[in-house]
């Protein structure tokens, strides 16, 4: 029996070493190779990545240029357009107010946003889940808006009277305009501007010191130069004013700041576990074009549930991915539109977790 007694500690040791190996982050060399390959194969000007797990420092990696003309290298402080990752911030802000009984997500959005005065049947829950029927951009002039709106009320008024795509709650229509209404609701419920509320209740608690509204107050030198791909050539992205979609796609940030945001969400520092669970409860139905909860997409990496969001906008492609059961956060940004950052973030997560990328059954 003595050999068996000696074998038990060995098995425990091997299991511990195996668990430790599962927690090891990418080596700098491995991730650098991943990024170099992405820059080459996807024709990216630059790319930034941040990875976070508890007990470790935020790991940051950069490759390429923030400006290809001046050959200015990307740094960890380079600001990118978040694009639709902004929706996750707005979702947390909305549900914070709901958790404090300041905003009822099942009451008419019009109650908190009087400018949205043609569809009293639409609620914040439907807006958060893209089930409101509010339309998305319908042409190039709206997708690539150049009109500046001084406030969200004026932005909402541009589409408030438009017919819904379907009766509220009966279908799925991805829409950034719906999140403009949510931003307006946040203002009505909090008696603060949307930007002020987010800064005081999300950015400051999360120590997100490099997250800003994408407007003229941010020096151009702090932002990445934004590009599109024409054939295999990088060309300047078209001009864009995001004041019509600030809550759904108007923030500038860094991958480092966004994994800080992910960490405080995962730690329930902004929402209680109960409200986080509500936020991440899937709302999509069979036949919907994507799986979605309230402000977040849902899926799997291997058998691990993930909550994530991608972003695409003139001159930017972004991905934020959270793996709650591992308290893992990954943010991947590039300063070119039309690039696949979602696939890259999923690949990084799969390699970190030693699992296949294919969804769980």
What are the key terms here?
single chain; 361 residues; alpha+beta; Beta-lactamase; seven-stranded antiparallel beta sheet; three-stranded antiparallel beta sheet; 12 helices; 12 strands; 17% strand; globular; disordered N terminus
The CATH topology comes to Beta-lactamase
**Strand residue content:** 15-25%
Order of helices and strands: HHEEEEHHHHHHEEEHEHHEEEEH
Number of strands: 12
Largest sheet: 7 strands, antiparallel
Terminal-residue CA separation: 43 Å
Report helical residue fraction: 25-40%
Question: Order of strands in the sheet with the most strands?
Answer: 3-2-1-12-11-10-9
The structure class reads alpha+beta
- The poorly predicted ranges are 1-23
3D structure, described in words:
This protein is α+β, with helices and mostly antiparallel strands and 361 residues long. The chain has a single domain, classed as Beta-lactamase (3-Layer(aba) Sandwich). The protein has twelve helices and twelve strands. The strands form three sheets. It has a seven-stranded antiparallel beta sheet with strand order 3-2-1-12-11-10-9, with helices on both faces. It has a three-stranded antiparallel beta sheet with strand order 4-8-5. β11 and β12 (328-334) form a beta hairpin. α3 (86-99) runs parallel beside α7 and α3 crosses α8 (194-203). It is globular. The N and C termini lie far apart (43 Å). The relative contact order is 0.17. Residues 1-23 have low confidence and may be disordered.
